[in-house]
Amino acid sequence: MQFSGIHHVSAMTASAERNYQFYTEVLGMRLVKKSVNQDSHHMYHLFYADEIGRPGTDLTFFEMLGIGRTYRGNNSISLTGLRVASDEAIDYWIKRFDQFSVSHEGISEQLGRKVIFFEDPEGQRLMLVSDQNNTGVEAGIPWDKSPVPVEYGITGLGPVRLTVPELARTKDILTRVMNFRHVASYPAYQAGQPDVEVYQTGEGGSGAEIHVEVRTDLPRERPGRGSVHHVAFRVKDRTELEAWADRINQEKLPNSGIVDRYYFEAFYFREPNGILYELSTDEPGFLVDEPEETLGERLALPPFIEHKRAEIESILKPLNSGK
User: Fold this and answer.
1) How confident is the model at residue 322 (pLDDT cuts 50, 70, 90)?
2) Residues 6+ apart with CB under 8 A from 264
3) How much is the pLDDT for 190?
4) Residue ranges per structural domain of the chain
5) Distance CA 176, CA 193 (A)
6) CB atoms within 10 A of CB 4
7) Which parts of the sequence belong to the VOC domain (predicted)?
C-alpha cells in the first residue's frame, strides 16, 4: 500500500480575519471552504487550496481565539512547503514578499530545488519550493481570479518537515508501517545536528515528501498560533482507508477510528514521537455542497451540523469572503 502524496496540512490561527487576508490577498490561494471545526463548532475551519481544492493542495486553519504564541521545539510539524511551477516563480515571490513586508530568508537551494523560507504574520513556518526540476505527484492549478498571476501561483503542498528528538521511532513508522522510502539527506541548518532525512511515498516528488529533522538541543514544542496541528496523507477511497486503519490498529498506535468529515473520510493516529498524522480520502471533495464558481463564499456546514446553523452563525464573526 502506498499513499498518493500529502493530502492537507492543518494549522492554528488566532485570527481568521487576518489569516484570510494573508493567505488570499498576499499568497493568492483560494478559500475553497469556509466551515467550522466539526469537533468544536464555535471556531472557524478555513481551507485554502488551488482552484477547486484538489487533494494535495489544501492548507487549513482552525481559528482559536486568544491562543498564545508558539514556543518552538521538538515533537512538532515544523515547516510546511508550498509548490510553485518554476524558478521564475520563485524570483517573482521574492519581489512580492518584499512588497508586502513578508518575513523571508531569500532564495536558497534544497535538494536541487530553489526555495524560499518565509513566515506568515503569526510565525507560521513556510517554504516555497520550485517544481522546475521536480517530478512525481502532479501539482494543482492556481485559481485564475487570484491576485497572483496563474503562472506564478501556488500549485499545492510541498515537503513537510517534522522535528523530533531522535530519528529511530519516526523512521520506523514512516518506512515499516507507512511504506515511505528513504530517498535523500541534506545537512542540517544548525551546526552539530544530524542530517535531515528525506522520505517519499507514492509517485514521489515534492508533493509526497516528508523531511525529518533531528534536534538534540530543543525542548518539546508548546503549540500556539502559528503552529501545525497535523499532516494528512492521501488514500483513494473508503476501502483503502479501512485497509490502512487495520494496519495501524495492528501496530496498537493510538487512533481515532474512521471519522466522516463529509468532504473526506479520515483516520487519525499519533506516532511515538508525538506527531499527529491523518489519513484522508480523495473523495468526495469540496464540490459536494458548493458549485465551483462560489466555493468558499458562504459558511458551509456538513449535513450533520446544518441544524445548528443559526446558533453557529450567531457566534462566528463574519469574514469578508462572501455571505
Assistant:
1) low
2) 7, 55, 280, 281, 282, 283, 284, 285
3) 87
4) 6-315
5) 25
6) 20
7) 5-131, 156-282
pLDDT tens track for 77-104: 999 999 999 999 999 999 999 999 999 9
Contact 173, 53 (CB under 8 A): no
> How crowded is the C-beta side of 281, counted as CA atoms within 13 Å?
21
**Which triple of cell numbers denotes residue 88?**
521564475
Question: What whole-number distance in Å separates Cα of residue 323 and Cα of residue 299?
Answer: 7
State the cell numbers at 87.
Answer: 524558478
Which triple of cell numbers denotes residue 301?
456546514
Question: 199 near 174, Cβ under 8 Å?
Answer: yes
pLDDT at 240 (0 to 100): 97
The predicted-structure confidence for 101-153, as pLDDT tens digits, reads as follows 999 999 999 999 999 999 999 999 999 999 999 999 999 999 999 999 999 99
Rounded distance, CA 142 to CA 44, Å? Answer: 24
Q: What is the DSSP letter of 23?
A: I
As beta bridge partners, residue 84 has: 130
pLDDT at residue 39 is higher than 90: no
Name the pTM for this structure.
Answer: 0.95
| Confidence grade of residue 323 (pLDDT, cut at 50, 70, 90) | very low
Rounded to whole angstroms, the Cα distance separating 135 from 250 reads: 34
| Angle 86-93-47 from CA coordinates, rounded to 5° | 90
- Cell numbers linked to 131: 517544481
Label each residue of 87-116 as H, E or C.
Answer: HHHHHHHHHHHHHCCCCEEEEEEECCEEEE
Report which residue type is found at 10: S
At 58, which amino acid appears?
Answer: D
Measured in whole angstroms, how far is the alpha carbon of residue 218 from the centre of its chain?
23
Question: Cα 91–92–93 angle (5° rounding)?
Answer: 90
Fold of domain 6-315: 2,3-Dihydroxybiphenyl 1,2-Dioxygenase; domain 1 (3.10.180)
